[in-house]
Each structure stands twice: as structure tokens, then as C-alpha cells.
TrEMBL record:
The lineage of its organism: Bacteria, Pseudomonadati, Pseudomonadota, Betaproteobacteria, Burkholderiales. One of its GO terms (molecular function) is isomerase activity. Pfam families: ECH_1 (PF00378). This is Enoyl-CoA hydratase/isomerase. InterPro entries: ClpP/crotonase-like_dom_sf, Enoyl-CoA_hydra/iso, Enoyl-CoA_Hydratase/Isomerase. Belongs to the enoyl-CoA hydratase/isomerase family. It comes from the Bacteria.
Length: 241
């Protein structure tokens, strides 16, 4: 399933995933999710970096509602398959990418958009970006978005955003640990390109080692993390000889 609203651009070792439906604020639907999943799960060994971008003024204003009509009376299994499974598969696919994933966020990042920013290894935001998890305004528990953020964002940040439905400015998102860096909106593209150039200056094996450690070490006991660090460093260094 390929979506016309996702543009995939390959430039050497860089893969850009562009949310490309600005007319509706880049709302994510099932075909868009499937296209992103297909892209990031089939990366070849020459890829060093994935970058998630957007066209238009907003990064992603959420998700197109997949809910069946009110009179359909869907079963819990149908709701799990239609409503819950697609975003969870997207978040899991992004978490499993072997190389760093960078998001470049401008404008609104709401619901799924907030999750996409948070699930990436690095989130670069413009100073006019806004982050919100508004689902509880409709009495919907946003546990799917929460699943993307838990382990990547402090629990108190997730709790505050979910329960208060507060709209965080880019500066507040930075302080809360949701984004990595905030830059002036006029400089966002240049700063993103500079970050990409810095990352691409490293070998693929080094980038994969760092990414693997970031993904797995936080769940390990201290002794296990130390041994894992030694293994990854030795493996990466041995590739030079």
C-alpha cells in the first residue's frame, strides 16, 4: 500500500520521509503509515540516516479518524485491528530502525504528530512549533500516542500533556524532554541540513552501534549495559581493520 501523501527521497546514504499532504495538516492515515513502515523496514546497508520532514506550515496535526460509523457497532477486535494496530505498527517500526531517525518539526505537532516527533532519536524543532496530545478533549484515552513516548520522554511530561491537554511551545517541549533542540523558524532547514551533514560524516557501523545502544541500554541493568557498550564499541572498531 503506497500513499501519494508520503514522498520518499533517497540521497546517497540519507533517506528523507516527507509528510506531503499540507492541505489537511499532514493528517496521518493508514496508507501513509504503511508507506512509512515499508520504507524504514526495508533500508539497505548503505543507509546511514532517516529524516522525517513535512511540507506545508504544520508537521502533522494528528490522524484521520479510522473510527467506523456510530451505527456500525464494531467489535473490540475490529477496533483493535482498524484503530489501534496501524499507529502501533508505525511507532514500533520507527523504534526498530537500525540507524538514527531525525524529525524536523515546524508548526503544529498534535496527537500522532507529537508521537512521531517524540519517537525519533533526535527531534529538531522550529521556535514556532507547538506540541499537544488533545485526545482526552473527546474523552479518548491516548494510550497509543503514550506508547510511542514512554521510554523516550519523561513520564511526568507524558502525564502532564495527556491529562492537561496543554499546548507546549517549542521551548517548553525542549525543557520537558520532548525535543532535542529548538532553532529559529527561518533557520530550521539550514540547521537540519547541518545536523545531517554531521551525522553522515560517521560510518554506518558507528551510527548503528550508537542507535542500538540508545534503544536497548536503558532497559538493561548497569552491568549488562557496560558489557553491551564494550561489545558494540569492539564490533564497530573491528570493522576498520
Amino acid at each position: 500500500m503506497t500513499s501519494p501523501h508520503i514522498a520518499i527521497r533517497r540521497t546517497g546514504p540519507l533517506v528523507d520521509v516527507v509528510l506531503d499532504h499540507p492541505e489537511n495538516g499532514n493528517l496521518i492515515d493508514a496508507p501513509m503509515s504503511a508507506t512509512i513502515i515499508e520504507t524504514v523496514t526495508t533500508l539497505d546497508d548503505d543507509v546511514k540516516l532517516v529524516r522525517i520532514l513535512s511540507s506545508g506550515p504544520d508537521f502533522c496535526r494528528g490522524r484521520l479518524s479510522p473510527m467506523p460509523p456510530k451505527d456500525a457497532k464494531p467489535s473490540a477486535e475490529t477496533l483493535r485491528r482498524v484503530v489501534a494496530a496501524p499507529p502501533l505498527a508505525l511507532y514500533d517500526a520507527l523504534k526498530a530502525v537500525r540507524v538514527p531517525v531525525v524529525s524536523v518539526v515546524r508548526g503544529e505537532a498534535l496527537g500522532v504528530g507529537c508521537a512521531l516527533a517524540g519517537v525519533c532519536d533526535i527531534a529538531l524543532a522550529s521556535d514556532d512549533a507547538v506540541f499537544q496530545i488533545p485526545e482526552m478533549e473527546r474523552d479518548i484515552p491516548p494510550t497509543l500516542v503514550m506508547s510511542a513516548l514512554i521510554g523516550r520522554v519523561p513520564v511526568k511530561t507524558v502525564a502532564h500533556m495527556v491529562l492537561s491537554r496543554a499546548r507546549l511551545s517549542a521551548g517548553e517541549a525542549l525543557q520537558a524532554g520532548l525535543v532535542s533542540r529548538v532553532v529559529p523558524a527561518a533557520n530550521l532547514d539550514a540547521e537540519a541540513d547541518a545536523l545531517v551533514d554531521t551525522l553522515l560524516g560517521c560510518s554506518a557501523v558507528t551510527l548503528r552501534a550508537v542507535t542500538q545502544f540508545l534503544h536497548l541500554a536503558p532497559e538493561m541493568p548497569a552491568s549488562g549495559a557496560s558489557g553491551f557498550a564494550a561489545h558494540l564499541a569492539a564490533t564497530a572498531l573491528s570493522a576498520r581493520f
